[in-house]
Structures are given as C-alpha cells and as structure tokens.
Specification:
With about 400 residues, the protein is an alpha/beta fold. The protein is built from 18 helices and eight strands. The structure holds nicotinamide-adenine-dinucleotide.
C-alpha cells in the first residue's frame, strides 16, 4: 500500500454525532474508512445510528447500494468511549456545538489523543479556524473542513487552512475530500468562508425589498411569494430567499448573519434584519417548527405570488447585483480563486450559475450601475461596490474570458 492510500483508507474519527457529525460519518464509512465516533451523550450516537441504518435501508430499496454494502458501512462505524480511542486515526473531524471555548478544549484533548501526523479538522460554520488552532501546541495540523447539510448529499466541502496550517496538511486534506467524491474548494480563514459570506444578500436584500414594499410589492405572504417567484422564475434559482430561509431555519440563518456581521466589525453590508429577528423571537423557525415566512400546517395553501415581469426583473437585478458584488469582492480580497468561488455557490447552495460567470455575462458595468443607483438612493455603505468590480467596469475586462 502506498503512503497516500494509507492516508486515504486509515481510520477516521468524528466528534459529535448530531446532524452534521452523523452525515460525515456516513460519508467516511461509505468511502471505506473505519470510523470512530465520540459524542458526549452516547444515546445520541445510538439514536443517530438507528436513523442512519434506516437511511441505508432506503438506499438499498432504491437500488443505490447493495444490502452487503449497507451492512459493511454500518459495521465500519464504532463508538469511541473516549477520545483516546482515536489514537490510530489519520483524520479527526469535529462537529460539536458551535462554541469556541468548547471546541478549543476538544482540540487540546485531540492533540494529545492522536498521532502527531493526524489531521484535526473542524466543521465550524462561523468560527475562526486560526482561533481553534490557537488552543493547540501544534496548529499546523488544524484546519477547517466545512461540509454542507445534508453532508451525504451536498457535494461541496470548503477547506480552510488557519494561519499556522501547513501546506502539506492542506494538500492531504484536499486529497481525502476528493477521494470521498466531494468537491473541495479552498477558502481563506475569514468570516463565513465563501458560501456563508457571498450568499448573505440573497436573504438580506430580499428582506429589505419586502420590508420597504419596493416596486409595489404586496405585504404579507403574498409579498414573500412574489419575491420567491421572481428569483425562481427569472433567476433560475431552485428556491427563493424566503422558502430557503424557512428550509435552513430562521434561527440558524439569523445566527449566521449576525455572526458574519459582528465578525466583520459590524460592516453594514452584512447587517441582520429585524424582520428575521422577529421570526426567530416568535419561534417561527420555518419548516421544522411548522411556520416561518410561510405556514406549513397541513391544508394551508401557499400563494403563487404576483407574476409581474417588470417587478420581477427589478427584484432579480437588485439581489443579483449585491450577490455578484460579494463574489467579486471575495475574489478581490483573495478569499478563494475565481473557479472555487463559482464552484462553491453552485455546489454548496445550488445557484443556477457561478456569480463571477454571471458577472461576465451581464457585464460588470451593468452590475455597477445597479449598485450605484442604490447607493445614490440610500446613501448607505451597504451598496459599496468592490474595487475589483469598478476596475472590471472601467477596463471592460472579464473575469474568465
Ligand atoms: N447544521 C448545519 O446545517 C451545519 C452546516 C455546516 C456546519 N455546521 C456546524 O457543524 C457543527 C455541528 O452542528 P450540528 O448541526 O451537527 O449540531 P448538533 O446540535 O446537531 O450536534 C452536535 C452534537 O455534538 C455533541 N457534543 C456537544 N458538545 C460535545 C463535546 N464537548 N464532546 C462531544 N460531543 C459533543 C452533542 O451531544 C450533539 O450530538 C457546528 O459547528 C455547526 O456550526 C452545521
């Protein structure tokens, strides 16, 4: 066996058997690894394993995997009574509660419990990888591996090196993720990485358009549905902003917005909205709680939303201009390569097209015009165009061709 193969097939450890942890366990065990799982509450692991078993049975019924494969996957998953059972692992992925001090404590323990060349990864959505690594003696093996929910289905994994992560370990991690048939993109350790940063205006600007009743938008559910319809119908997005927030959970979506905003020292571009805060306060989390922007009670019909082409075009142009500006600014600030920024948005949140490619198609000058109009109207930093967008517009250059 070559050294490389050994890395790819060696045992993997997962800390936390919640939504993300068990999804990552499924991915690693399906890729052929023995997976040791530690959760501070063993019964949560046991419950997750029962659910995973029934997921695998469904895959067997659909003919996606054989019943032997399903059995092998389950047999490869072992509960670790404590972290010292991770001593043979080549990679450990942490997917516990989103709390810096709890994660730092676990990483200190992992550093002690594992071999010195074992990669230590966090699935954090919003914490700095460097700050997690900062708690370790040797942060060169600490990095971020950010999976998307549901991990077995979503192809994207953002790989985030912290300041101290070695290039060798970054390459190793990328090879493992590719061997798991996932799409790796590399993101700089900055708030929201790629997806959770670039996607912010999809939600925030949609809410603002709704709040202000722009372009004659009706109030209430009809207004949400009109914006969703415009983004689906004209933009080609699989879901509109309000239905997507309801799917993600308004509690989670609001928390991500608030975290990204505060980590950017309250940059108004990421300012959270009171409308969403009220949703959270009212326990209107979305589908999971039975109501959010929409009502999910059985028998409730959802309005179609208005079909007014002129209004829909204005809604799309405005949200898209802000999204493209974020993507271009992420490129400007070297958060990731142009290819990875576009891959991240198409594979992590199913956008119909990469935003940078979209910029090339629409023309940077047109995107800039929309932002300048909004800036003129509102006189707010929120519509501040990226310096790269201005440069692309003035030089008439494209990003990809
Ligand atoms: N849910 C998502 O959509 C999503 C997407 C990407 C990333 N993330 C990130 O993944 C991580 C996990 O999120 P989740 O939604 O799976 O959470 P979850 O609440 O579903 O699961 C967390 C699990 O970790 C266990 N746990 C907590 N503290 C522990 C400790 N000290 N030691 C061992 N086990 C511990 C809990 O018992 C629980 O089973 C978070 O960092 C989150 O930000 C979540």
């Amino acid at each position: 066996m070559t050294e490389n193969k050994k890395v790819k097939n060696g045992p993997v450890g997962v800390v936390g058997a919640g939504t993300m942890g068990i999804g990552i366990v499924q991915v690693a065990a399906t890729a052929g690894h023995t997976v040791y799982v530690f959760d501070k509450e063993k019964q949560l692991f046991e419950r997750a394993l029962v659910n995973l078993n029934s997921t695998l049975n469904k895959l067997t019924e659909k003919g996606k995997i054989s019943s032997n494969e399903a059995k092998d996957i389950i047999n490869r998953i072992l509960y670790a009574e404590n972290l010292s059972e991770f001593h043979e692992c080549d990679l450990v992925i942490e997917a516990i509660v989103e709390d810096l001090s709890v994660k730092q404590k676990v990483f200190c323990e992992l550093e002690f419990a594992t071999k010195s060349n074992c990669l230590l990864a966090s699935n954090t959505s919003s914490l700095s990888i460097t700050s997690i690594g900062g708690a370790c003696k040797n942060a060169s093996r600490v990095l971020g591996l950010h999976f998307f929910n549901p991990a077995p289905l979503m192809p994207l994994v953002e790989i985030i090196p912290g300041i101290e992560t070695s290039t060798e370990n970054l390459i190793k991690a990328k090879e493992i993720i590719a061997a798991w048939k996932k799409i790796p993109v590399i993101a700089r350790d900055t708030p929201g990485f790629i997806v959770n940063r670039v996607a912010r205006p999809f939600y925030g600007e949609a809410i603002r358009i709704y709040e202000e009743g722009c372009y004659g938008l009706p109030e209430g559910v009809e207004g949400f549905a009109t914006i969703d319809r415009a983004m689906r119908h004209l933009g080609g997005f699989r879901m509109g902003p309000f239905e997507l927030m309801d799917l993600i959970g308004n509690d989670i979506n609001y928390k991500v917005t608030e975290t990204v905003w505060s980590q950017f020292y309250n940059d108004p571009r990421y300012k959270p909205s009171l409308t969403q805060k009220r949703m959270v306060e009212a326990n209107r989390f979305g589908r999971k709680s039975g109501s959010g922007y929409y009502n999910y009670a059985a028998g409730t019909e959802r309005p179609e939303g208005l079909l007014d082409d002129a209004m829909a075009q204005k809604i799309l142009d405005r949200i898209l201009a802000l999204l493209i500006n974020e993507a271009v600014d992420a490129l400007y600030l070297r958060i990731a390569s142009a290819e990875d920024i576009d891959l991240a948005m198409t594979k992590g949140v199913n956008y119909p097209k990469g935003l940078l490619k979209w910029c090339d198609e629409i023309g940077a000058q047109n995107v800039l015009n929309t932002l300048n109009d909004l800036s003129e109207l509102y006189q707010e930093e929120r519509y501040r165009p990226s310096l790269l967008l201005k440069e692309l517009a003035s030089t008439n250059k494209k990003i990809f061709f």
